[in-house]
Amino acid sequence: MSFGSLRRTLFGDPLNTLLSLGVLALLAWSLPALLRWAVLEAQFAADVGACEALDHRGACWGVVAEKARFILLGRYPAEQAWCPVLAALLIIGGWLGAASGRLPGAAVASCLLLPPLLAFPLLGGGFAGLETVPTELWGGLPLTLLLTGAGLAGALPLGIAIAYGRRSSLHLLRALLTAGVELARGIPLVAALFMASFLLPLFFPEGGGLDMLWRVLIAIVLFAAAYLSEIVRGGLQAFPAGQRDAAAALGFSPWQTERWIVLPQVLRQVAPSLANSAIALFKDTSLVTVVSLYELTGSLGLALAGDAQWRPFYLEAWLFIAAIYWIGCSLIARLAQLATRGAAPRPQADPPGN
Amino acid sequence: MPPAFRLLAAAAALALAPLPAFAGKTLDAIKSRGQLACGVSTGVIGFSAADSQGQWKGLDVDVCKAIAAAVLGDPNKVRWVPLSSQQRFTALQSGEVDILSRNTTWSLTRDAGQGLHFAGVTYYDGQGFLVAKKTKVSSAKQLRNAEVCVQSGTTTEKNLADFARAQGIKIKPVVFDKFEASLKAFFSGRCQAYTTDASALAFIRAKEAPNPDDYQVLPELISKEPLGPAVRRGDDEWFAIVKWTVNALIEAEELGITQARVDSLKSSADPSVQRFLGVGEDLGKNLGLDRNWAARAVKAVGNYGEIFNRNLGAESPLKLPRGLNAQWNKGGILYALPLR
């Protein structure tokens, strides 16, 4: 933006001038204090004595330095810390690949599906000399990403299937799916998690049954699928019928029509709403702490709540993970933007002979 | 049916009927697993918390370590399961943990209503109030119409309501899910008072108040909070092991058996010390353990006094006085059942 247009935007008329001046005054008033607290007087080394001497006049980022591994990786055994790091990188890499917009459809699907699937054995260990790590020790950012990634990877195909099912001509199927979706949308995620973790184990023999992580993941997949299916259904309803007719006229089978014509367009169209749900899910994973899975917020609690020396500096630690969440959410939003780039109708070549 | 057949049929019926759970199955499970599953908190200073290296420390943690040492011979063979306050009882009932050592108050509804057995009291706590001095409140009875910050999911909230009703005053609880949030709210002036267990209040005032001198802990305790480890019902043998290990830790202090002196005291002439250390009489066989179980427990974590000092008392950041938690012959109410 040129200087001239900036001036017009900010000081074009009396109201804008007033608002701009107000915002500038607010910045001038708050920025120096913020800067002083967050940077100038802050303590960056993991030195609890120095932090206590500061007495909160400056931020104690040392708490992040001291607790970084615990906050980011939770209770995962330190000697195998590279496993969760690699798992997290795989999942993020998969998302980046899926959104690059340069991959064919099948590759996009595998970018979303494969990394979470690979993350399970990687985190679990028990092969190639790796120590077996029970799921209860998984935690921190990799767990947040795994729950989001695996949740989406499971929920998206299921959501698409439900969306088609609800358009089916079978009354019973339609009624069942509608009831299921309404049920899943009618209860809060916390309630679903509580049921998965408190009720289910009482049905199984002592100590037996499904692992907590799996129970929670199933609850998340079912919950997210209900929301995603409605988004996809909305996209399907808005799809112009003419294209289906045209496909039929060209000899496409119904399956081919959906696979090559309808779904690619519908999914692009609803990508912003899907991203919305993905962002919501990313943040909702923090709810799993109530059932004793320690993802990012949970492992922060474990790291700090009982530490007499570092607990007074929890604000800095929370700001740190708030920044992580912000980066994660912006990343998902950006990815959705990239993915929708192809949604705009491409300029068509003029039909020949015209 | 001839009597012989009837007998046979009865025997067959007996053989086919589901066997009653035989005592000691928890102990067998722990031994075959090689690990004690211990339910702890998600972080309570002095009771159970993981340090930066992920090592668990605290009074409740030491109780589990002592039991692991007594049962498995190694205090480090423990699987730590941090549990939220909402989830702790389900985890115990469903068999996810063998013992719940998570600063849990022993009360009738929890003992009888939740299908638990509390194995003893490891810390006598009580609920108190922290107020800003500028509010000029010097007694909890003056908290009329006060807003009190409190954390949800524990007995704290209910005690506050009970106290208000008993005193005939109106108190507005301001409830928070997260500890940090409740504390921040109090120190930023959202509430006139903050309430939680007294063991935590002194530390909060000293370490987390913007200026400790502006705040004071009110003299009244409004509830009794005897904290102790719990096991699930239906396994008396395991219950006995936990109960007597807790008693052994307390008895060790009374007998003067410390972590450092466990081995040298084996030559002691005192019959109680000899019994405790398994030199003469074998007490362990009554519990299904060997004769050195109690000696191993003390060797692993020290006696109750040492555990207290390390985690809550003079050697800890909390610097709590022994108070009620001193031995019965030292002005407290700690009274180990006799190990004989």
TrEMBL record, chain A:
GO cellular component, as recorded: ATP-binding cassette (ABC) transporter complex
Membrane topology: Multi-pass membrane protein
Name by which UniProt lists this protein: Amino acid ABC transporter permease
Chief location bin: membrane
Domain of life according to the entry: Bacteria
Gene3D superfamilies, A to Z: MetI-like (1.10.3720.10)
Entry's localization field: Cell inner membrane; Cell membrane
GO MF terms, alphabetically ordered: transmembrane transporter activity
Gene Ontology terms describing biological process: amino acid transport
Similarity-based family: Belongs to the binding-protein-dependent transport system permease family. HisMQ subfamily.
UniProtKB/TrEMBL annotation, chain B:
A Gene Ontology biological process term: amino acid transport
Signal sequence range: 1-23
SUPFAM superfamilies for this protein: Periplasmic binding protein-like II
Keyword Signal attributed: yes
UniProt keyword list: Signal, Transport
Domain Solute-binding protein family 3/N-terminal: 35-265
Domain of life (superkingdom): Bacteria
Sequence similarity: Belongs to the bacterial solute-binding protein 3 family.
Family annotation (PANTHER family): AMINO ACID ABC TRANSPORTER PERMEASE, AMINO-ACID ABC TRANSPORTER-BINDING PROTEIN YHDW-RELATED
Protein name from the UniProt record: Amino acid ABC transporter substrate-binding protein
UniProt source species: Zoogloea dura
